[in-house]
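Hi! If you just cloned this repository, the fastest way to understand the data is to look at a raw example. We've pasted two of them here, unedited. The first protein comes first, obviously.
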Amino acid sequence: MAPDADSMLMVGDIVNSGTSGEWNEIYDVMDATADIRPRQTIAANGNHERYAPGGFDANMERFYAFAEREKPWAEYIVEGPAGDLPVIVLGQEFTAPTDVAMSEAQVAFFEERLAHWTAHDKQVVVMTHFPLGNTVSASWLHWYSEHHQMNDRLTSILGNYPNAIIFTGHTHYPAELGDWAVQRRTADGHPDGFWAINTIAMHVEWDAFGENTAGIREETTRDINQGLTLDSYGDRVVVTAYDFASDEQLRQIEIPNPLVEFDAEVRPDDGGDPDPGTGPDDPGTDPGTDPGADPGTDPGPGTSGPGGSGDDSAAGEASDRGDLAATGSELAWGIGAAAAALILGGLAAGGLALARRRRA
């Protein structure tokens, strides 16, 4: 990332198992790249942060020390010429009953902050390591769709906020797939739903093979160096998938902020045209499945889960005002969902980075 970048968001699996030695390697890399890294790092916890001996609490303490906070969830405000961009981080609190077990307090915080920023006409970035069921690539497989204990509630809450964009990792699936970025609608939510985007893998790519869902298998396809950038202009964000090794743009999607007037005069200064068929009018996927996967289970053969509308409805409603103000800016802030931030011992750390960009 450029030296003027302001924030790097990491969506988890920063280390391989969570040992002190692995974290020391990360600190060494962070120190060695201090002059070229974004000034701020925002991290979510993934499953690989909690595999080291010593127990869940000891592993999470090492993650908290890196993240510089005391719990899995948090809110950050990235300030820039295009206005504030809120970033909400969600994560695992307990060892059971699923990989992302969380308290009512975390869910209440999430819903309240979404409502708050919607009242201020802001698009909101949400980060969590595991995908929600039936959103991005492979999340329709049962071993990916049941990680979140509150899967249906979180999906239903997000369904009320078309200004929300959730970035997830874990699945290692490529940006070339049609469900790299999806507009996910719910039965009880806003007609436009919310956006879900796969941050793609930084180092090891997977894909699914098989004649049918029941016999599907996953295989490692290749080593890669890929990730995303996200530019925020106040009236929209532009997400671009890159192959960093070849300096090639893979995909791009523009997501308007539905709460403000679109300013067509302000355009990104880099990146190509949005992909056909990935714009705001794309149909969403079916509602997600019920949670229930055991923590720590490895992927295995399975079938996609049944559809559902979520177990609870969110209280917040997306703004639908008529007095919309234009907030487009000649200066934009960019977030890079670049899973290519760190490579240590063959492990890829997923992440997003925020950079200032000026229109040519």
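Ok, and the second one:
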Amino acid sequence: MSIGNSPQDERPFEEDRDDREEAARPSIGRALQQARIAAGLTVDDVSSATRVRIAIVHAIEQDDFAPCGGDVYARGHIRTLARAVHLDPEPLLAQFADAHGGRPAPTPAAPLFEAERIRPERRGPNWTAAMVAAIVAVIGFAGFTLVKGDDGDANARAQVASPTPSGPASPTPKKDKPADPKPEPSDSAIAAAPRDKVTVQVSAADGRSWISAKDHNGRLLFDGLLKQGQSQTFQDNEEINLVLGDAGAIQLYVNGKKIEDEFKPGAVERLTYTKGDPEVG
């Protein structure tokens, strides 16, 4: 005869302990909100860096995932927002899976292969249409040549009937060439920037990144994706405020000087530059 509690008797105590730990853990939205505030970011900053709409960011921070449009999109938004506020997304995704019936089932291979089979194949050149177009072009050229020949004969006959004194031919006016497109600002142009202004050049050297730039009055100068190899130059009388969605992919030139700060890939940086020597705000 055994004395004490059996293993079956201990299970309710273990379940109570798990319930207490679950209650102590913050919700997904609360965890994202606390991490955002700790990173010094506003909802507008996170929305600009991740391209997730402001209304959806507010809803997720209130643990309302309905505006996401489904569990798959909700998981994607949770992962994106967690990375933007420097938070590990995996525990949040696991917490979401526990609350919404587990992780999504893997997509079966058959529909993928069906999609590949129904994808339109690349067609070869339409030789029939090309031949018809060539014939039409030949007929049109022949008709144009015939008309021009008749006009030339008529002009020659008119010149024989009423000769005119020869004189120096008037020069044919040349058509103005279209203005060359304005080139992108170069490093030398940045180096020659006026000293009474602040000039910032943002270049996507190592990848692409979402960029937001405002002047000292808060007026939006640029808000969009900067692809690899592209650059933007901003200028203001007092200061330029930047938000870099992926600072590790960006190279900065401020007032003609290269910024040597090593930003981490995927990091969201908020920077302010003024006249004089570049300083991180």
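That's it. A detail worth noticing about the second one: The first strand starts at residue 198 and ends at 204.
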